[in-house]
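Researcher: We plan to redesign the surface later, but first we want a full-length starting point. Tokens attached.
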């Protein structure tokens, strides 16, 4: 194999590059004038640096937080499905290293001190102390699965009465009593809150270990603000411990309010919040707490049955400086005009609201934060399609990151190289900026497939084909403002597939996948996705590698594209393609 800047190229790829370097029609910006060796180095360096064919996207941090899209995770702590998978701090490490900027923590009361380990124990010890035998786990899982198939609500157990005595309303901030000696303070070994998916067989992880992991990994790949979305199911005493742990672990990284605050306090700029942690926690005004006592619901609809949410203590509520989570009942409610509020809607509730109030929803999201998350019946940790939600202005589209799928590929393309925050197109930002109309253009796209390498081990001969999809607005979304198929669509609006060739280093013979005369797209919110597949008999085809690009960031020219694997990281395979992008209008 020939080598270019450390990337070993097969003879097939090298021959294509040599031939194309001699063609006069190739853009000078694509082929350096110094010759073939510089072209090879240019292609290899782009690939090694993670360019992935994407044009750079500088981040303008001068706008308020609500003017950006944010790479976000749902039920971050889970390593698998929503019913019986294990909670782990590794899940937080993984998403943070992939650039996620909004993580979720569902917090529940810890075990009693007599049965829980000390706070200094590591995660493995905690897991062992609370686990059951393999046999009993298997029986519990089978029983839960059977119940769920009949009815989702069958998974919920009643909350113990002693846990609910003082938990009669949600989101209401209660004044603290500094002199009060709470139970955990008077015990030598105290219990600490746990993180788990309530009323399922998922295995917990300690809240402290999650906070420590966030402290250690929050700034590994990005210095952009990190939002920590708290779902509180704990007693007052456990909330006090939560506040203590967060201050202990995150210290000066916690966002603090300005000297003078009110309900009209404006959101800060993105730039001013670099390396800050923003806590998203339930909030309610005193008037609302009194008039709508007990109305608040869990943001995760799969945990709503038979849950009586606890009041939020004052010290915990104060941490929600710029991300105050408010129950959504309509766009006319008083909280909808508080600059620091954030509404969280399940995909079902969002779609229902969209059908009735599409204009109001879009206008709200020009100025204020909104979060959308997968419906509770997605027990396999599948995902909604994030693109339509972004096109309706939702800043935080929370996704399950456990397994790579279409949604995570689009998310990867949306936030590639940005640090996890992307400025919304002008028409999707504050009306005070001019209220520009959504810019739509026409697209001609041609992707000429040349060759690939490293798709499989040396002793395998996969039957390789490439599937190319355009993720753009459907007619129903453009004309009526609705999300097609209730958000169940799994593929792009337009699709092409190459013929099948055999081998780990296939030659595609310059087959071209073309999309001509595509009308009325928004390039910043439209995507092209390529999947390299193994055509397998009698079962689902295997994914050999993939790449995905936002259309406004897709480069024209010769591209040596590193492919990614099922962990969303480069898997060592490459595809050589000649790309032509023409955007008109």
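Model: Full-length starting sequence:
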């Amino acid at each position: 194999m020939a080598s270019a800047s450390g990337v070993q190229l097969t003879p097939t790829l090298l021959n294509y590059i040599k031939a194309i370097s001699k063609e006069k029609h190739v853009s000078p910006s694509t082929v350096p004038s110094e010759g073939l060796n510089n072209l090879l180095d240019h292609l290899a360096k782009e690939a090694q640096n993670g360019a992935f064919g994407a044009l750079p996207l500088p981040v303008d941090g001068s706008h308020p937080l609500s003017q950006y899209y944010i790479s976000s995770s749902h039920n971050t702590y889970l390593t698998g499905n929503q019913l019986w998978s294990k909670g782990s701090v590794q899940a937080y490490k993984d998403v943070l290293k992939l650039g996620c900027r909004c993580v979720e923590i569902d917090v529940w009361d810890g075990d009693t001190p007599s049965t829980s380990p000390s706070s200094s124990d590591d995660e493995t010890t905690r897991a062992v102390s609370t686990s059951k035998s393999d046999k009993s786990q298997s029986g519990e899982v089978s029983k839960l699965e059977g119940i769920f198939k009949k009815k989702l609500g069958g998974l919920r157990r009643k909350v113990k009465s002693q846990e609910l005595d003082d938990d009669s309303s949600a989101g209401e901030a209660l004044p603290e009593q500094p002199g009060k000696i709470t139970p955990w303070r008077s015990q030598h070994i105290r219990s600490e809150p746990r993180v788990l998916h309530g009323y399922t067989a998922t295995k917990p992880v300690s809240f402290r270990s999650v906070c420590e992991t966030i402290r250690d990994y929050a700034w590994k790949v990005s210095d952009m603000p990190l939002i920590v979305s708290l779902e509180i199911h704990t007693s007052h005493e456990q909330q006090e411990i939560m506040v203590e742990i967060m201050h202990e672990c995150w210290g000066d990284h916690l966002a603090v309010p300005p000297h003078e605050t009110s309900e009209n306090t404006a959101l800060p700029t993105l730039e001013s919040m670099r390396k800050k942690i923003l806590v998203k926690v339930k909030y309610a005004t005193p008037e609302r707490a009194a008039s709508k006592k007990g109305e608040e619901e869990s943001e995760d609809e799969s945990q709503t049955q038979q849950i009586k949410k606890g009041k939020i203590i004052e010290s915990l509520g104060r941490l929600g400086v710029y991300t105050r989570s408010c129950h959504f009942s309509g766009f006319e409610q008083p909280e909808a005009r508080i600059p620091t509020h954030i509404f969280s809607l399940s995909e079902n509730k969002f779609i229902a609201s969209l059908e009735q109030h599409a204009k109001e929803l879009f206008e709200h999201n020009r100025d204020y934060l909104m979060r959308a998350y997968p419906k509770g019946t997605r027990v396999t940790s599948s995902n909604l399609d994030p693109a339509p939600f972004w096109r309706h202005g939702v800043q935080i589209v929370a996704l399950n990151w456990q397994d790579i799928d279409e949604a995570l590929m689009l998310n990867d393309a949306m936030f590639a190289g940005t640090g996890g925050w992307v400025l919304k197109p002008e028409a999707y930002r504050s009306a005070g900026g001019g209220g520009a109309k959504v810019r739509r253009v026409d697209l001609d796209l041609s992707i000429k497939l040349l060759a690939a390498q490293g798709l499989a081990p040396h002793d395998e001969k996969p039957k390789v084909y490439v599937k190319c999809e355009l993720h753009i607005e459907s007619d129903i979304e453009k004309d009526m403002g609705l999300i097609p198929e209730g958000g169940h669509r799994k593929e792009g609006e337009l699709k092409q597939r190459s013929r099948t060739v055999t081998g780990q280093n296939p030659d595609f013979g310059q087959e071209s996948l073309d999309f001509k005369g595509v009308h009325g797209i928004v390039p910043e919110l439209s995507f092209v996705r390529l999947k390299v597949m193994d055509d397998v008999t009698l079962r689902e085809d295997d994914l050999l590698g993939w790449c995905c690009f936002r259309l406004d960031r897709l480069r024209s020219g010769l591209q040596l594209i590193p492919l990614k694997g099922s962990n969303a990281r480069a898997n060592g395979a490459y595809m050589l393609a000649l790309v032509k992008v023409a955007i008109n209008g």
